[in-house]
C-alpha cells in the first residue's frame, strides 16, 4: 500500500483559538479556566491560556488518518506532553513512518512517531502510533489470507485454564442448572479460547470493505470422555479445520470451523469440541440486497 513507502509526513500548521478550546471544553467536559481565562493563566505564571493536551492529541490522530490513508486502522496512539502551548500560537504537527512489518494475516503493521512543535521549534508533544494497513486490491472474501491467518490444519494456540468452583457455579446459575462438583455439559464453551478472546487470529475480517449483514455461532458439538470437574486444570489446543464460503439470503456467508482438544493435568483427553462461526457480508459494498 502507498503508506508503506512514506517516511516523513507533511507537517501541518494549526493555530488553536479560544473558540477551538471552548468547543473542545464542551465536548470533553473540561472547563478548567486556565484554558480560556487569561487572568487565571497569568496568575499561574503563563502569558496566555493554555491549549488542552487532549486537543493536541486529537489533532494528531485526525492528521494520522489523512497521512496513512483510508486503508489503515489506528490501533494505538500514546502521547507525552512535554511543554505547555499558549492559545493563538502556531503549532506544527508532524510525524514519521518508523517501520512497516508484514503480519501473518496479510496486513502490515505500521509504527509511527508523531510530534507537535511550537514557534521556537521546541517539541511540546511527542508520541507513538501503531496502525494496521490492509492489503491493496481486496476483491471478494480473502479466503487464502484467512486460512493462513488461522494456520489452517495446524495448532493455532494452546491455553490452560483452572476450573474454579465459583466459575462453575456462575455458569450453572446462568443456564438454570444446579451447581455441583461436575460442570454442566455445556461448560466446554467457557473453556473455548476464541470465545474467551484469548485467541483472535481473524480480527481483520471486521475491517473488510464490505457491509457486514450478520454473524454468530453456526454450530457447537462436543464429545466428552468424562465430565469437567471443579479443580481440573484443562489445557485447550485449538485447530482450525475448515474455511469456506457459501451463498446466503443476506449475502455471502463465511464459515470458520475449529476443533478444541481439552486435556486435564495428567494429559488425559477430557473432551473434544467442534465449533463453527459464520459472518455474512454483502459483497457489492452497497445498494439493495437481491
From TrEMBL:
Coiled coil: none annotated. Pfam families: FAS1_DH_region, MaoC_dehydratas. Residues 19-99 form the MaoC-like domain. One of its GO terms (molecular function) is (3R)-hydroxyacyl-[acyl-carrier-protein] dehydratase activity. InterPro entries: FAS1-like_DH_region, HotDog_dom_sf, MaoC-like_dom, UPF0336/Enoyl-CoA_hydratase. GO terms for biological process: fatty acid biosynthetic process. Belongs to the enoyl-CoA hydratase/isomerase family. This is Dehydratase.
